[in-house]
């Protein structure tokens, strides 16, 4: 415990921890709108499109100046977003095709520029590779103010345009028919995502930034149907992933912070996909089993009731063989045992036959009527 406290007292660890949490919260909040607009690939395209801007910022500044690099990344990211929107709106290509084109072309240009810079030599050019995978240790206290400013600005913008963003995210066509400037609103959301990507380049890098945008939102979507709840939960998951990744990286020698952050976010997504109430795979499997059991119960009850009505005897005992012929298969013993334990049927003898027989109880007749959706006359008392 003392070792952990000593570790957390380090200025470098504190800076990385706060920066990772801020970046995760910003990414989670803005990634929600990308997920709801079905533009998860948007973050990937913009993060890859930031690479040529990183290189251009380096060339213009003549060195690895963080301000110039981030400005260049934002410019090329915004340009890529504009080109993507133009392709999707002015051609017959769909949005996913436009995103794929922008991603590959801009990243290819970035790799070419990166190669040119490295062939020129110089120690500063070596640091550009950290923007591919991130280097959390390079974050400074001054960078936290930039992250905080971007996060605060994004939060204010989201709150100010909450109704508009909500409508555009769920039904852009309806929003357009109501006179909302859908194109402008989508452009604002895209610029905000580009800002989040630029802020996260140094921590997570170009390659992994899309995961930090999409994973928290994907996990949050499993737990809530409310946009407000999804935004808050996604931001919390992002902050938790960032802080957790920073702590694990700080306590384990040789682990880079960015990949660990992404892995933690991915684990949260997997857990959410499995156990989220109502939507998780475990819940869905249980619901499917319950539905199948209900169908099987209903078939057995309806068959027993049919025999009772056929013989004009509410307590008519039916033998297993009769049920098998009527159902086309032998009724599962588990189904019969379940119905009997719930008081819907009971096992009876029917001399001189020695095979087991079952008859419906009063509750069984009522349940059969409910499952069949028909109204039956009141059955005779037991």
From TrEMBL:
Its main location: membrane. It comes from the Bacteria. The chain crosses the membrane at residues 12-36, 45-63, 69-88, 97-117, 145-162, 182-215, 227-248, 260-282. GO terms for cellular component: ATP-binding cassette (ABC) transporter complex. The keyword Cell membrane applies. It is a multi-pass membrane protein. Keywords: Cell membrane, Membrane, Transmembrane, Transmembrane helix, Transport. GO terms for biological process: cellular response to iron ion; response to zinc ion; transmembrane transport. Residues 349-382 are annotated as: Disordered. InterPro entries: ABC_BtuC-like, ABC_TroCD. It is found in: Cell membrane. The keyword Lyase does not apply. Belongs to the ABC-3 integral membrane protein family. PANTHER family: ABC-TRANSPORTER METAL-BINDING PROTEIN (PTHR30477), METAL TRANSPORT SYSTEM MEMBRANE PROTEIN CT_069-RELATED (PTHR30477:SF3). This is Manganese transport system membrane protein MntB. It comes from Yoonia vestfoldensis.
